[in-house]
Specification:
single chain; 292 residues; alpha+beta; Barwin-like endoglucanases; six-stranded mixed barrel; three-stranded antiparallel sheet; 14 strands; 14% helix; globular
C-alpha cells in the first residue's frame, strides 16, 4: 500500500496522521519532501525507519537495506554504487543521504534541532515511532511480520534511576557492522575496513532480546548477561562515553543481551558516534539516563 506525506501548518502528516511538529512551515515542507522521496520508492524497507545519529545530532532516518530485485539484504560499498551487491545478508552502510533527485537514494528524514524535553535521543525515538505507527509497509519486516503499527521500537520506561553510574570503565564491543549480516552460522568475506577483515561471523538473528528488529543504524546496545545489567537496564537509556576522548558520548537503548563476561556491545552507528575506539577492556564509561 502506498503512503502519503503532507503538511498542515508546522505539522508533518503521514497518511493523515500527525507524526511531527517541525516548528516552522519551511522545515515541515523539507521533511514532507524527504518522506515523499522515501515513499516513492517501493523497494524501501520502511520497518528500518529508526532514530540514529548523524552530523553530530540525533536524527530519524530510513537506511537502504534490501536490494530491489529479490528483497534480500545488500551491501553497497559506496553510496553511489547501488548495483555493487555483496552476496551475504549485510547491512547497508549509509544512514544519512539527503537526495534531491533520486528517491532510491533518500535516507534522511529529520534532525532533532531542539528538544522540548531536553532529551533529543528520546525525541528521535518518539518521532521514529510516530512515523512507524502511521505507515503502510511495502513488505513484511525483517522478522516476517506485516503490521508495523504493532512493531513500535521499545520505548524506555520510567525508571527508579537505579545506579547513575553503571561502570566507570567497562569493556566495549560492537555489532551490526556492514560486514556482520544476519545469516546465522555463516561468515562474511567482504572487505569493509572496519576491523572485520578478511572475515566476520554474522550475527545470530534479526531480532534482539526484547523482540525489536535489530537496526544497525539505530542507537541500541546489548549488555552482558552475567550480572544485573541485562535485566536491570533492559529497555532503558544509557549514556556511553569514550574514555580516550570524553567529549564523545552517545545515548542508546539497551535492547539486547551481550555474551557472558563482557560489558556493553554498541550498534554500529552508536560505535561510530563515539569515534570507533576499538573493542577491548576499559574503553567506556556507562551511566543510566533516567526518564520521567
Amino acid at each position: 500500500m502506498s503512503n502519503i506525506a503532507t503538511r498542515s501548518g508546522n505539522n508533518v502528516l503521514v497518511n493523515g496522521i500527525t507524526v511531527f511538529n517541525a516548528g516552522d512551515t519551511a522545515r515541515a515542507t523539507t521533511i514532507v519532501n524527504r518522506l515523499t522521496h522515501i515513499f516513492d520508492s517501493s523497494d524501501k524497507d520502511l520497518d528500518f525507519i529508526t532514530p540514529s545519529y548523524a552530523n553530530g545530532q540525533y536524527v530519524v532516518c530510513c537506511p537502504r537495506v534490501r536490494r530491489p530485485n529479490d528483497r534480500t539484504y545488500f551491501y553497497d560499498t559506496t553510496p553511489n554504487a547501488p548495483n555493487n551487491y555483496h552476496p551475504s545478508k549485510l547491512y547497508e552502510d549509509s544512514n544519512w543521504v539527503d537526495a534531491t533527485i533520486s528517491p532510491a537514494q533518500q535516507t534522511a528524514i529529520l534532525t532533532i534541532t531542539s528538544s522540548p524535553t531536553n532529551t533529543p535521543w528520546q525525541d528521535a525515538l518518539t518521532a521514529a515511532n510516530a512515523i512507524r505507527a502511521a505507515i503502510n509497509l511495502n513488505f513484511n519486516d525483517a522478522a516476517g511480520r506485516a503490521n508495523c503499527r504493532q512493531l513500535q521500537l521499545a520505548a524506555p520506561r520510567p525508571s527508579g534511576y537505579i545506579y547513575p553510574v553503571i561502570s566507570t570503565s567497562a569493556r566495549l564491543d560492537y555489532y551490526g557492522n556492514v560486514c556482520q549480516g544476519t545469516s546465522p552460522g555463516t561468515v562474511s568475506t567482504c572487505t569493509c575496513g572496519a576491523g572485520f577483515v578478511p572475515t566476520a561471523q554474522n550475527i545470530s538473528g534479526v531480532t534482539t532480546a526484547n523482540m525489536d528488529v535489530f537496526h544497525p543504524q539505530d542507537l541500541t546496545a546489548a549488555m552482558t548477561s552475567t550480572n544485573s545489567w541485562n535485566t536491570a537496564y533492559r529497555n532503558r537509556f544509557v549514556k556511553v562515553t569514550n574514555l580516550a576522548n570524553t567529549s564523545l558520548s552517545i545515548v542508546v537503548r539497551v535492547t539486547d543481551t551481550a555474551p557472558p563476561n563482557t560489558g556493553i556491545e554498541l550498534s554500529d552507528r552508536a560505535y561510530r558516534a563515539i569515534g570507533a575506539p576499538g573493542a577491548g577492556n576499559n574503553k567506556v564509561r556507562i551511566e543510566e539516563i533516567p526518564i520521567v
